[in-house]
Amino acid sequence: MPLVKDGKLAEDGWQKVDPEATSMPSGDRLLVTLDQWTEHKVELCKRGGAFGVRLSPDHGPEEIADDLVHFDLVALEFPAFTDGRAYSHARLLRERYGFEGEIRAVGDVALEQLLFMHRSGFDAFEIASDSAVEDWETAFADIDVFYQPTADGRETALQARRRS
Amino acid sequence: MYRYDEFDRKLVTERAEQFGRQVEHRLSGKLSEEQFRPLRLMNGLYLQLHAYMLRINVPYGVLSSTQMRKLADIGRKYDKGYGHLTTRQNMQFNWIKLEETPDLLRELASVEMHGIQSSGNCIRNTTADEHAGVAADEVEDPRVYCEIIRQWSTLHPEFSFLPRKFKIAVTGSPHDRAAVKVHDIGLILDRDSSGHPIFEVIVGGGLGRTPFIGKTIREELPPSELLAYLEAILRVYNRFGRRDNKYKARIKVLVHETGAEEFRRLVDEEYANLKGGSLDVPQDEIDRIDAYFAPPDYAELPDECAALDAKMGENADFAEWVDQNVACHKQPGYAIANISVKMPGHAPGDLSSDQMDALADLADRFSFGEMRVTHRQNIVFTDVRKDELYGLWQDLVKLELAAANLNLIGDVICCPGLDYCALANARSIPVAEDITKRFADLKRQKEIGPLELNMSGCINACGHHHVGNIGILGVDKKGEELYQLTLGGCSHEDASLGVRTGPGFTVDDIGPAIETVLDTYVELREHGEEFIDTYRRVGMDPFKEKLYAAR
Questions:
Q1: Which of A59, A85, B172, B468 has a CA positioned 20 to 30 A from the CA of residue B133?
Q2: Is B7's CB within 8 Å of A117's CB?
Q3: Domains: count for chain A
Q4: How far is the alpha carbon of B162 from chain A, nearest alpha carbon, in Å?
Q5: B485 in Cβ contact with B504 (< 8 Å)
Q6: CA–CA distance from B182 to each of A94, B170, B185, B233, B492 (Å)?
Q7: Which residues of A touch B162 (CB under 8 A)?
Q8: For the complex shown, is ipTM > 0.90?
Q9: Between 1.10.10.10, 3.30.413.10, 2.40.440.10, 3.30.450.40, what CATH number should domain B134-291 receive?
Q10: pTM, two decimal places
């Protein structure tokens, strides 16, 4: 599946560990499930390197808050685009827990959600589309007035009013 | 009223253009109906039984004459010459063609209107007291905060895919005309002991399949913290609201299952983190928006009006109308004129394009070019000089909009029902028409006294039947339309949910059943008692006995 980051097709340098796997493969940049992380945390930390964790929306960011220092990537799942829990989770990761690594949207991710996702703190997207980069560009071309302050750095209407 | 600045205008224009492109893609086949559905819903476009329906937001019910004229045009150009006022202070058009919606939305944007978030699992149009800013009993004007909420909730990145739809209502008067206790969030604006505005925050009210009266989770919230507190509530709901069953997905179920105390704790925890941050509403922003709602240029008048008294003495019909439909105003010499859109035998809340145009002209002449849409599906002229009420009334008579039945049985709330709606189980408009004809005699209506009769064509309760003093719910029982009756509902500060009388009635029997209920009430009432008071005193049994005695 194409991965888009900062508007460009990106190489996915992460090794997605089979969610059923009970032992950790060798190599660096492992993307593991929350269960696998909990189970193998001690071993992995000893081994060192970069890790990523994949969270279903049933699990909130507070469950990994203490371990964020070990992660370069948090992948948040959208089981269906209508399931909006991960928007809150992404904002909490960025705005409350100060996570600065990659937050990746995986699952039912499509053009129409990209702007909302980006505003909430996602910066990488696995998009099930033949025209993923074009989708990315379209998603940000249409609307450029924003009322809500988030950590995305976009100026809000209120900030612009007070500036002018 | 609030006027868009460059930012508001830009967003609505951009959104109309965006939707135009999405419609093109749908028509060319680039988008399937499945892919297109969520996009059109986010813009208020539903696919109904016979055609598309477009729901247009009227922010907190405030409408300018220019906007009303545009709605009249739209009714003529894109619909069959009429529109329908909804129970959420909006207007909807029932006969829309998909290929025409981009042009329609561009036209709407030109008068600062749109259908954004009038549908979908997001924060819907915020509703307010229809007499906001002018009611004699008002403590604080809720409109300024409604506008702050409008902006905050528009295209909210975190809350556009909630478990279910989300409705906020605000009032600033002790007498609740906005049904705040049966909304996902209800806000009551008041003043604290030192005279500063504060909100009481009520959550988890709602109608539908499982009705609840909301619970107060915060007594005194300062306005600067309003958005931080709302964001905390919405975040808790977005994260923990049920998504496994759409009938249990509203916040009322979360509040009920979690318990109000625990829910409050979760919100407070979130709020502690958000408070004092970038969501704080600065006082100068509140003042900036408040300036848009400054009172119009009232003439200095005495409150007594001899001309009005004289006309009321001369014309009994006019006197009836003033008596029933006109309410007290803050400003001496002015009055609030409630215009009933409930003519006997007509679909409740339907206005023809000609009527809309005429209302716009009358608003220009008599009420500073502004009007309100009410959740009881009527129109209000908020600022009419007492000495001009007679002139206004004469014109309303010509328009067939002078029914003196406000808050009487003729003033029914009614959803579109099976005549239009894809969700409905039963027709509601014909039943409402039958009842309004049955009780067309105004003298009889007045004898019965204040009464709210609400009717829904299905369990989703768009007609608010649970909080009608008398509620009617249309159901489908083995292919037959059946009408269940509830008594004792109330949507005001002493809100209560109606109780079912027993087995439902057929379409032919429901009218007579209402007659039986009202005869019973008239027989039992003590001096000066309204229907709801009598019901609360005597309970269900006497009504039940009479209703089912013959069975």
A1: B468
A2: no
A3: 1
A4: 6
A5: yes
A6: 35, 11, 8, 16, 9
A7: 84
A8: yes
A9: 3.30.413.10
A10: 0.96
